[in-house]
């Protein structure tokens, strides 16, 4: 969705590692936190699904507290995932409006290099959600799709890891680390306040 830049692979790998690490920590700590706060099963599920970054860790944390909490956490998390589509559209549109390359003299034609408004992976995601929502797919198809998606994810992360040196990750600096940690804490505080304030 965004133009290529020299640090794209390093930034992608940093985000993946950070999100996985923080999500794993949250999977362990957040169930204890919601128990200490006295949330009921639905509130606990809303908190877990609304704050943990990775789907797998949301499922693990939710169902470790019970079926109802796990179901609520999964639904909330999937709603967050679905909301990525309009976010991608807005971000892609903004990028298209601001990314212009090429000669700028009066007699030259300005060449514009713009990313697509909606990347193909997002289009396929929406189509699969619609198909899975409107039709009852065979179990073998769903299981095969899950296994295939995990294989593609592992392959993509392996490819990025092969292209990226560890020193590049270590040289990323403290600001990106602080940003993602503060964002995680802000999200947790925001959801806690929402659940504790009488509606």
Question: What brief labels describe this structure?
Answer:
199 residues; mainly alpha
Detail the poorly predicted runs: 102-112
**N- and C-termini, Cα separation:** 38 Å
Radius of gyration (Å):
20 Å
How does the helix and strand content classify structurally? mainly alpha
Q: Beta-strand level of the residues, as a percent range? A: under 5%
Sheet bearing the most strands, described? none
Molecular shape: globular
Question: How large is the count of helical segments?
Answer: 9
Reading the helices and strands in chain order gives HHHHHHHHH
Please give a quick description of this structure.
This protein has helices at 8-37, 41-51, 55-63, 67-82, 84-98, 120-134, 139-163, 166-170, 174-196. It has 199 residues and is mostly helical.
Structure, explained:
75% of the residues lie in helices and 0% in strands. It has 199 residues and is mainly alpha-helical. α1 (8-37) packs antiparallel against α2 and α1 runs parallel beside α9 (174-196). The chain has helices spanning 8-37, 41-51, 55-63, 67-82, 84-98, 120-134, 139-163, 166-170, 174-196.
């Amino acid at each position: 969705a965004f133009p290529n830049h020299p640090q794209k692979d390093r930034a992608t790998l940093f985000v993946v590692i950070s999100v996985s690490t923080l999500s794993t920590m949250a999977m362990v700590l957040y169930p204890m936190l919601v128990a200490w706060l006295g949330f009921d099963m639905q509130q606990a599920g809303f908190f877990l699904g609304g704050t943990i970054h990775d789907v797998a860790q949301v499922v693990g944390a939710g169902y470790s507290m019970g079926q109802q909490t796990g179901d609520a956490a999964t639904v909330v998390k999937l709603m967050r995932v679905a909301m990525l589509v309009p976010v991608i559209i807005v971000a892609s549109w903004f990028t298209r409006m601001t990314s212009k390359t090429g000669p700028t003299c009066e007699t030259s034609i300005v060449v514009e290099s713009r990313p697509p408004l909606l990347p193909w992976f997002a289009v396929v995601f929406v189509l699969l959600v619609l198909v899975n929502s409107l039709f009852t797919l065979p179990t073998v198809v769903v299981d095969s799709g899950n296994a295939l998606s995990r294989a593609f994810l592992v392959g993509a992360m392996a490819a990025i890891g092969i292209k990226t040196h560890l020193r590049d990750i270590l040289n990323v600096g403290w600001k990106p680390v602080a940003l993602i940690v503060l964002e995680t804490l802000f999200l947790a505080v925001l959801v806690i306040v929402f659940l504790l304030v009488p509606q």
